[in-house]
Structures are given as C-alpha cells and as structure tokens.
Specification:
With about 250 residues, the protein is an alpha+beta fold. It is built from 7 helices and 9 strands. About 15% of the residues are buried.
Length: about 250
C-alpha cells in the first residue's frame, strides 16, 4: 500500500492509544504490542484492496476433495489480531518457531482426528499427506483445552500485515517451506528416540546424531509430545526437533 497511507494508519493508531490510555500493551518498559483489535486503522488496513487480493491468491492454494464442502477460497474472512509498532533493531520480543491452530489436538481423536486430517501420516503413507486439502479440516476441534488466545475457526493462512519496508532478517515472518515433510516429522517425532544421545556425539559429528541408524521406534512410548502441551500451540526447537534444522529451514518471507 502507498507509504503515506501506511504512515497515516500508524499515526492514527498511535493517537487512538493516547485517546484510550487504558489500552493494555507490552513489554511494560517499552510498549510495542498493543491489545487493540478493532481500531479504525486496523479495520481500514484489513479491508485494503491489495490485502484482499493477496489473501485470495494465497487461499487459492487450497482445494477440496468434497465439491459440496461449505468452504470458499474466494471470500477472505477478517481475523482480528493485535497491533505491533516495532522499534528498529529490537530483539526483545520475538516468537520462536511454532504451529498455531492447537497443539495436542493433532494427536487426539476428538481434535484433528474428527476430520482424519493426518490419516495418511498415521498409516505410514506420509508421502501422500496433502496439507492443502481443506474439507477434512472443517470438523476439526483445535481448541479442546480453551487456551488463552486459541481460535476455533479454520484459518487458511495466518501472518502479519507489515506496513513498512522490512527485508529478510529484519523482523519479517519466518516460514518453513517443507510443509508436508515438517508436519509429518513433528507428528511422528514422539514415537522415536535416539539410540545415543546428542551429548555422546562430538561437535564435529552432529550428523551422526541425526542419522537414521541412530534413531529407533520406541517400544514403550511416553506421554511426551515434544513441544505440544494442552491449551498451547505446537512449539518447535532444535532440542526436540533436531532433524528440522530450523536455523536453516526457516525462511524469511520476501
């Protein structure tokens, strides 16, 4: 969108905060994230023709095996989120790699199991898993534990509307392009353990730790779901999900 328009949105939302001093914000010592969802600037930005065009393009990646499924890829829905006015170079507020839309629900019969979303993965046919099939996601219950900030609607995409010139590595969103493979990996990860722990490998042989020969199927699985806990999203990190190599696989959006 035009720079002057984006700057006007920013100026207006800053004035809105001043006019509503009760607005919650964090961090307390240097507020950058404001608990605003329906300020005039946000409503206008979400309705901008360029944003709606972008949303329709992204939504077109989805498809349905059920021609009569009550779902549309041509009509974006507004998902209200907060406002962040980021300070240049700030590193104090950053989200780690994660998957929204629930956590433990992905393994539960009455969560994602209602739509049989991951059946191909559970059947050992993970190469056939289609992450862009939409109709199977409609019955899903992704918030079984009423987590703070949990969302019950099916969101085809979630991202940030950036209204400034920000390049890769300067605060833009990071995504993992290996969607189907990464999903299969973190879902199956709880069922495997290393034969030799990472600490037993020298720093020069980290690849030995990742080799298939060093991993085996657990004969007595535990209740740990590696980064998934009730009422929270799925967290990913190098300790729990070493094969994802997140420092390399997570890529900045343009």
């Amino acid at each position: 969108m035009p720079e002057e328009e984006a700057l006007r949105y920013k100026t207006d939302v800053q004035q809105y905060v001043k006019d509503n001093p009760h607005t919650k914000a964090f961090p307390p010592h240097d507020p950058q994230v404001f608990e605003l969802y329906w300020s005039p600037s946000q409503v206008r930005a979400r309705a901008h023709p360029n944003l709606l065009k972008t949303q329709r393009f992204l939504m077109s990646l989805w498809h349905s095996q059920e021609p009569d499924a009550p779902i549309s890829t041509a009509h974006p829905l507004n998902y209200a989120d907060r406002v962040r006015i980021r300070r240049p170079g700030d590193t104090g507020f950053a989200l780690g790699p994660h998957v929204d839309g629930g956590g433990v629900e992905r393994w539960e019969e009455h969560g994602y199991g209602l739509g049989r979303v991951y059946d191909k993965i559970w059947q050992g046919k993970w190469e056939e898993y289609d992450p862009w099939e939409s109709s199977c996601r409609l019955p899903v219950v992704a918030d079984l534990y009423n987590g703070a900030g949990a969302c019950s609607m099916f969101r085809m995409f979630q991202g940030w509307l950036s209204m400034s010139d920000t390049g890769p590595g300067e605060g833009t969103l990071l995504v993992n392009p290996f969607l189907s493979r990464a999903t299969a990996y973190f879902l199956l990860r709880p069922f495997f353990s290393p034969r030799r722990p990472r600490s037993s490998h020298s720093s020069n042989s980290s690849m030995d730790f990742l080799r298939p020969s060093n991993w085996s199927l657990d004969t007595h699985p535990t209740t740990s779901l590696q980064g998934a806990t009730p009422s929270h999203c799925q967290e990913l990190n190098d300790m729990l999900h070493p094969h994802l190599q997140l420092s390399k696989s997570m890529q900045s959006t343009p």
